[in-house]
Amino acid sequence: MAVLATRGLVCLDLYFPRLRRSVCCGRTIEFEAGQKGFERGDSAEDACGKTSRNCDSLSEVKVLCRIIGRRNWGPCVEAALRASGIAISCHHVCEVLKKIAEPKLALRFFIWAGQQKDYRHNPETLRLITKSWGHVKHFKAFLDILEDLKRERCTMTRKRFSVLIKGYGWAGMVDEAIDTLKQMTMFGCSPDVIHFNCVLDVVVKWNDLETARHIHQQMLQVGCLADVYTHTALVYCLCKAGKSDEACEHFLQMVSDGCAPDSHIFSILITSLCKLGKADKAFQLFDEIKGRGCNPNVVVYNALINGLCKSGQTSEACKLFGMMKKSGCPPDTVTYTILVNAFAKTKKVEEASMIFLEMLHSGLVPTECSHTALLNDFCKLGQTQKACSLITAMLEAGCMPDSFTYNTMLDTLCREYRLEEARQILNMMRQQGCPPTVVTFTILIRALCQSGMVEKAMELFAKMNESGCVPDRFCYNTLLNGLCNAQCLEKANKFFVTMIENGCTPDVITYNSMIKVLCGVGRVHQACKLLDEMKQTGCSPNKQTFTLLLYGLCNMGNVENAFMLLKQLSAYDCVPDVVCYNIVIDGLCKVGKMNKAYELLVEMPDNSCTPDIVTYNTLIHGFCKLGLMDQACKLFDVMIGRGCAPNPFTYSLLRAAVGRDTC
Question: pLDDT by residue (tens digit) across 168-181?
Fold first, then answer.
């Protein structure tokens, strides 16, 4: 036991800089029983953090959250917090803790706040941080130690040091944990294997292999013998760094030093070796486990089974699966899921189904991943009835498929236009009390539209609204796109207005669908008005928007406006691609405006756009039509010089033009 006195330690900064900076700061304020933790100048109501705060305080909380949330915690964050000039109060801390979703970050901020001058936590800040961390063993003891370290005299023991190190680890404060270990001797406490293991645990979680090695060396230098936990931490760190061979060497050294391995260290090594495709070494270790009388756990078996499945050795994996059950190690959900997925990937759905049913009969709940993949495979193979039978077996075992499972099956069937089978799955979904979601309706609406049944799609959309299922933007866009593709302009226009009236804001996909149908029926002027509307509503057009408009304008012979629009693309933060240029160049060539067409060809490289064979062929064709053979031949040479190989159509254009000239 040692007592820390914060007065009279003239050399404290020299020998114990971090602890003084982090937790002492020269403060001797006591947190006595009954004290409410008042802030400077606050009333009793303020101490509880329940009074209203002015706008300045709220804006300061926003500033603090922005600083904390924009990067990983480190010196830069602390410097930014100091530079903000905000005098931290309990109100600030409470509001920030309410907004931080990540417990580790919340604890880091809580500790940092407690180190600030003239600040101390009140019951409300303590309640909020305990809400996130209260389930962790020794957390309250950690808070008590932090509070005690602010006192004039603080009692520290080996146990308290281990709790302090663990606490810094919870907050991700690796440097503080390491410094605390170094500074133990100042208070007459020699670190033992527990303290070194606590620090190693912190370091390993941050995958800092070099620091872990350094801590291990320090441990040996002070004559502290490593135990199985020490070696496990180092082996884990080596495996995470991809150094499985070195991890195996360390393991062998550990055994030769007389330290008996446990199943945990074996599982770490075997899992790592299997992930790296070193199945032979993994099985050697597996044999060694059994040879030492150490029973492999489910993690070890799962790693080996997964390794065999990934290498395509499913029959060997099944043998090991059988051995696992005989040895008294019951398979878990992970084991079954590995085998189900392995058989499903190789289209062995019957075998996958047998494994899946065994999992159900053993009382295990299948993961969404396993049963969704299997049911989907049955649908892909046209075995919808077997998929329904499997769902029935799941229901009998008390496992209810959710909407995601049903929707995945429906999507597979609908993409293959097997609408009658999709209807069977939908009926089963309803019968089992799983109501269709907006995703369900969207899948079906898309399938109906793609099958040319737009009227039925609209009827289904109406039923969806009647059932109380609110359509989202994706659902609106799906039906609108179907109407536009079917050239149902009036219905599309009406539906577009309905969408806006129902509070669903159109996006670029919505506008592109409308622009496409308007251009398709020759109403390009209306389509251009939609571009202006997009600008007004803050919806950014994309390349597809401009491609549709440029094509529509050129198709109507309005090439001058198309030329102007192409020049204006940069104003919309959009760089034209080769398709955009080719559309306008083709339009200009068709009306004989070769100078402007050639101007665009020259401009293309400046916009990081390389002309392709279509570009050159279009221009050569334009020159040939006007009898400008010299220009056509020169462009042909330019084309070859730039590495664009002519195709048969290029030669046919030139031959035809030469033939006309000869005649």
Answer: 989 889 899 999 99
